[in-house]
């Protein structure tokens, strides 16, 4: 393909997954760890592969933030709300959207050439919270104001401190107002049993992106698993491996309803990409 040719992802649902799995293999090893648990339906002994999360603003180079803003700036030239469609575009790349977002061929090509998933592994953090706060918080009483990473880190340490590692991994964590999922990130160094929900569809999507990158056990949790107490499944919580649909909850707000999605795409790609 010549460099000046349009590179389209429209017919390539899930095109980001091979890159994601390879990057995780290089940096964290969490997907391989989770696949082994799924195959055996047993929690492996020893600690969860750790990720040294920081507050997004602690990274002096802020490579992820600059890369996302570059994509959004280009999108704003032709879209009234580029953030929403950019998030949908990434979700399509992760195989988590049923339809390709309504973006032009040129913008699709630009985002394909510009978006750098690898930077999220160099600077592990909840970068989406910063983007969402800037986009949704200005002059908006219903904006998004995330819990600071330092507070989340402290809450996580207080919650899991003193518990044996094997007990921590089975502990159930539920965040009823998860936002972009910062609590999930820090808790994922301790537990494999995480769920949450939020009133905002776009924040849920951002949490799903974070889960795909950093927390496999939240992004992909087969119904066949028996390693956890599934009694909470009857609650209206989000399974971040699923597509979301927005429904009126009868209380003047929106809830996130999660049908069970097809897992074939991730399973097929993972089998091809895994290193035995």
Q: How would you describe what is shown here?
A:
Helix 1 (17-27) packs across helix 13 (264-273), helix 3 (63-75) runs antiparallel to helix 5 (105-114) and helix 4 runs parallel beside helix 11. This protein has a two-stranded parallel sheet with strand order 1-2. It has a two-stranded antiparallel sheet with strand order 3-4. Strand 1 (172-175), helix 10 (182-187) and strand 2 (193-196) form a beta-alpha-beta unit. The model is unreliable at 230-262 and 272-276 (pLDDT under 50). It has one domain. The chain contains 13 helices and four strands. By secondary structure, it is mainly alpha-helical.
The number of helical segments is 13
Instruction: Tell me the number of strands.
Output: 4
Please summarize the sheet with the most strands. 2 strands, parallel
Total number of distinct structural domains: 1
Name the descriptors.
single chain, 276 residues, mainly alpha, two-stranded parallel sheet, two-stranded antiparallel sheet, 13 helices, 45% helix, globular, disordered C terminus
What can be said about this structure in brief?
The chain has 276 residues and is mostly helical. Helix content is 45%, strand content 6%.
Which helices and strands occur, and which strands form pairs?
Blueprint: H1 17-27, H2 30-40, H3 63-75, H4 82-93, H5 105-114, H6 119-122, H7 127-136, H8 149-160, H9 165-170, E1 172-175, H10 182-187, E2 193-196, H11 201-214, H12 216-219, E3 245-248, E4 254-257, H13 264-273
Parallel strand pairs: 1-2
Antiparallel strand pairs: 3-4
């Amino acid at each position: 393909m010549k460099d000046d040719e349009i590179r389209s992802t429209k017919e390539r649902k899930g095109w980001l997954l091979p890159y994601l799995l390879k990057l995780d293999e290089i940096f964290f090893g969490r997907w391989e760890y989770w696949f082994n648990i799924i195959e055996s339906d047993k929690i492996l002994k020893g600690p969860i592969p750790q990720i040294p999360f920081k507050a997004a603003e602690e990274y002096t180079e802020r490579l992820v933030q600059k890369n996302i803003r570059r994509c959004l700036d280009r999108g704003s030239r032709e879209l009234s709300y580029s953030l929403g469609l950019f998030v949908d575009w990434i979700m399509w790349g992760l195989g988590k959207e049923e339809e390709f977002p309504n973006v032009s061929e040129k913008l699709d090509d630009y985002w394909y050439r510009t978006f750098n998933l690898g930077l999220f592994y160099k600077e592990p953090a909840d970068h989406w919270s910063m983007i969402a706060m800037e986009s949704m918080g200005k002059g908006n009483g219903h904006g998004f104001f995330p819990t600071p990473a330092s507070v989340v880190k402290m809450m996580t340490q207080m919650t899991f401190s003193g518990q044996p590692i094997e007990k921590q991994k089975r502990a159930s964590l539920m965040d009823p107002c998860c936002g972009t999922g910062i609590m999930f990130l820090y808790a994922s160094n301790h537990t494999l049993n995480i769920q949450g929900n939020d009133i905002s569809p776009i924040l849920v999507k951002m949490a799903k992106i974070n889960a795909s990158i950093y927390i496999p056990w939240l992004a992909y949790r087969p119904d066949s698993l028996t390693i956890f107490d599934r009694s909470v499944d009857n609650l209206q919580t989000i399974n971040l491996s699923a597509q979301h649909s927005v429904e009126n909850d009868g209380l003047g707000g929106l809830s996130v309803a999660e049908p069970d999605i097809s897992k074939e795409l991730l399973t097929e790609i993972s089998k091809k990409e895994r290193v035995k």
